[in-house]
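Entry 12.
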Amino acid sequence: MTDPTRDSSSAADPRGSAEWADDLRLALQLADAADAISTERYRSADLHVSLKPDRTPVTDADQAVERAIRAGIEAERPGDTFFGEEYGDDGASHRQWIVDPIDGTANFLRGVPVWATLISLVVDGVPVLGVVSAPILGRRWWATRGGGAFSSEHGTAPLRVSGVSDLADASLSYNGLEYWRDAGRLDQLLDLTGRVWRTRAYGEFWSYMLVAEGSVDVAGEFGLEPYDMAAVIPIVEEAGGRFSSADGRPGPWHGSALATNGLLHDGVLGVVAG
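Predicted 3D structure (tokens):
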């Protein structure tokens, strides 16, 4: 994990660390292909929407994007495995690509521009690469372990979390109240909101990218799957932040997320952990 006190002036290569450079190039190419598919279907009059068994919506765009990314991985990394939201996984391996073809499907189908394709590479259970591409916002974020975190705003810009060290000065994004209620943590959330300066529910990938950019100091939610989190973890951590479950466990495997600027992490865990 990146040291949250790292000097922001230290230079990093926007192409990522050499170890993951080829994988990052592939992930960015796959994000380009995904953006082409999703933007063509966004606000389409003939968009097909159905409900999955868990009653969440899925569109033909979600499915088409995932098929395209899976085909790209199979062609370029035949020894790797794949786990996507729409078509599941084909087994665990040393290297696994985890993909959410459209994070924010409900936004996508309602014409809200806050949605993105999430692409990650996980090696031995640890996310080492993340790409988040939000084409309607005109933004993309990416990171590799040891290679820094970057966004496409104003060219290529390095990302750095905030230096806020007091909860009373912090901005919090908590996603939806219902997820905290269903997890039995609504009282903890209300306690936390009373301790911070400002609260909003930006939702989806957006909360975590705002943490990485230093615009939000704390983001957390429940009811998550690995494909919701794997891509954002390297971006938050390489920007100097910390990421864990709401109980402090590492990785995207525990159904919840807590991302902070690092300085606030232990204090927030003390409030929200069960």
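Annotation: The CA atoms of residues 1 and 237 lie 6 Å apart. Residues 167-272 form a domain with the D-Maltodextrin-Binding Protein; domain 2 fold (CATH 3.40.190.80).
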